[in-house]
Fold this sequence. Notes:
- The structure is a single chain.
- It contains 6 helices and 2 strands; from the N terminus they run ββαααααα.
- It is about 65% helix and about 5% strand.
- The protein has one domain (about 35-180).
- The termini are far apart.
- With about 180 residues, it is mainly alpha-helical.
- Strands 1-2 form a two-stranded antiparallel sheet.
- A hairpin with a 5-residue loop joins strand 1 (about 10-15) and strand 2.
- Helix 2 (about 50-95) packs across helix 3 (about 105-115), helix 2 packs across helix 4 (about 125-140) and helix 3 (about 105-115) crosses helix 4 (about 125-140).
- The chain has helices spanning about 35-40, 50-95, 105-115, 125-140, 145-150, 155-180; strands spanning about 10-15, 20-25.
Amino acid sequence: MSSVGCASEVRRNGEDGLGRKLNLPEGLGPGHPAALLATWFGVGLLPKAPGTWGSLAALPFAWFIRDDFGAVGLAVAAAGIFVVGLWAASLYIHRVGEADPGAVVIDEVAGQWLVLVVVPPDLFLYSAGFVLFRIADIFKPWPASWIDRTVKGGLGVMLDDTAAALYAGVALYVLSRFMGG
């Protein structure tokens, strides 16, 4: 395939370690910082349910950040990854020519971290936070659904997951309080 074409042309320019080619936007090779971050180090390129894989991949990072730097540290990290995600998602979206490419999962990382700010590292609570966030992200209660439909580009991609995370975070907090946490 020629490297000359429109922004929406996708070329094969890397492998996944199993010999399978990865589809990345034109001009964003597998080592490009925007591709690495937007796909959360390639997790978004997994063949099925990239959002779920992105949320799952966020969990160990959240655990270590929360354990070492507390709730404030995880909140700051979530805000930081949101800002970085604006850049990475915007560039990725521009290059691939799709409104919300499935491979972009940095929004799931930011949202998942935001959900987990309200609880300490705990296997049950983090598992519950994962499930609650996936439910909120898939069903997109208002205003997440409104943002998903009306806000375009990297901001829309990042913001709808943040709105969904607020619902999941409240539900996780209530669950942890109910459990005596």
